[in-house]
Amino acid sequence: MVHPVTKVGNISCAYPFVAQVAEVEVNLRTGAIKVLSFWAAHDLGKTINPIMAEGQVHGAIAQGIGFALMEEIPLKDGKPIYNTFKYYKVPRATDMPTIEAIFIESKDPSGPYGAKGLAEPALTPVAPAIANAVFHATGLRLNTLPLTPGKVIDNALSP
Q: Above 80 in pLDDT, residue 1?
């Protein structure tokens, strides 16, 4: 309920919670990062359609892998270098890891039928999970996306 005078209030009737973990392999010679496995635990209240929910998580992880590792529009003087998507990389089936999606049911009293949202919460932690896995594997803290091979090599060589 939003307060009528201050306009401050609860903007969502039901807040979902997510925890994700990525397992990666990093080649320090080439800078290549490969996501091997991915675990995603989601509190989405009542899971109304488990098959659709799992598909949503798999799609979000695919999109997040692209965001984390390859999707980039290089700019020169603030304008895209390429005027085509020919060089725009997106994940392929061969880039996808094994994924385990876990749904925790909490039956939120505010959500419809006790459910909560799943779309954005499934995508948001993917890139941070991958960046933290790269840090855990290599000790390299890469803090700009995408995590390209060049950035891995540059950070591995810097003191």
A: no
Q: What is the CATH number of the domain that holds 118?
A: 3.30.365.10
57 neighbors 101 (Cβ within 8 angstroms): yes
**Of the residues 25, 100, 105, 120, which is catalytic?**
120
What the block records as the tokens of 118 is 């799943």
pLDDT confidence of residue 7: 72
Q: Which of 89, 88, 33, 40 is nearest to 61 (CA)?
A: 40
Does some domain include residue 64?
Answer: yes
- Per DSSP (E only), the strands in the chain are 17-26, 33-43, 75-76, 79-80, 98-104
- Which residue bears the tokens 């390429």? 82
The percentage of residues in the chain with a pLDDT greater than 70, rounded to a whole number, is 96
CB half-sphere exposure, 74, CA atoms < 13 A: 9
The residue range of the domain holding 24 is: 17-157
Question: Into how many domains does the chain fold?
Answer: 1
Across residues 29-39, what is the average pLDDT? 97
The yes-or-no answer on residue 120 being catalytic is yes
Query: Amino acid identity of 157?
Result: L
Dig out the tokens for 132 from the structure.
């933290």
Residue 103 lies in a domain: yes
Position 114 in a domain:
yes
